[in-house]
Amino acid sequence: xxxxxxxxxxxxxxxxxxxxxxxxxxxxxxxxxxxxxxxxxxxxxxxxxxxxxxxxxxxxxxxxxxxxxxxxxxxxx
Length: 77
What we know:
Shape: rod-shaped
Number of strands: 0
Number of domains: 1
Radius of gyration: 31 Å
Structural class: mainly alpha
Number of helices: 2
Protein name: LAQU0S01e02542g1_1
Largest sheet: none
Distance between the termini: 97 Å
Helix content: over 70%
């Protein structure tokens, strides 16, 4: 064991942590997890929306091109 680890353990045992530090120790992991989940959900939904929007625009463009080709065809003679 390193001397610094022994010193830290000895200091931690003799001195109680401050209430301010305890707030961070207690709530940092849950808040971090929720923040990560929220940001991940937001971006995954955002990119899914963009992907669907691009597919919709491509389909509309394709339909317009087909309509234009049909209108260029000569009618019955």
